[in-house]
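User: Can you predict the 3D structure for this chain?
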Amino acid sequence: MSSTVVMSAPALIRLSAVSKGFLSGGQVQPVLQTIDLQLHPGEVTVLLGPSGCGKSTLLSLIAGLEWPDSGTVELLGEPFSTLSDAQQTRIRRRSLGIIFQFFNLVPTLTVAENLHLPQQLNGLAFNARHIDRLLQSLGVLHTREHFPEQLSGGEQQRVAIARALIHQPAIVLADEPTGSLDEASAEVVNELLFDQARQQGSTLLLVTHNPALARRADRVLQLHQGRLVQQGRLVQQGRLAADDNGAT
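Assistant: Here is the predicted structure, written as structure tokens:
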């Protein structure tokens, strides 16, 4: 496990007995059941599980885009549901970097302007050097003055990743962030995500179907039938070595 993980520091993310279901056929179908989870500064956590098991729902609950049916979600020590809309928005803007499978780039803004938008919303000055450095690290500096419609899908994904990281958030939530990328580009993205968490002391929660990627994480979680059933580091044979039966 990386020595930069600060387990003694307060958790940046804390879920306590979180459950969530959705209405289907007139009945509520449970998706997540009594999830307990704590993620700390500098920690890289990989979340594994088959499609439809609730991984994306868990990220949406952490981001405050969905609300649990029961239990509590805390970000940076604050119970999210008790905050005003303005306070919730402020935390999302300043402290969250969200990478979902849909790019959601603003079509009327250039790449550079899309990256400046989070800086602007946080009251930060335009930092062209930081924007260029991040785009360069992801291999898309040449798209700087292009509009999203002029980019390939892979380029749009890398720009969306850059936008999520531009304000150096304390928490990065990434849902299959390299799904539309070739192997070489995916490796660049993964290196950047892991390095930023460990060097800046942020926490990264990465959803993936790729067990090989989990070998590089500090912690591995697995969702099965709505519950976190395994956790640990991967051993050489590729099997999960459970730390304990909980998820804290």
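Residues 144 and 247 are 41 Å apart (CA to CA). The first helix runs from residue 55 to 63.
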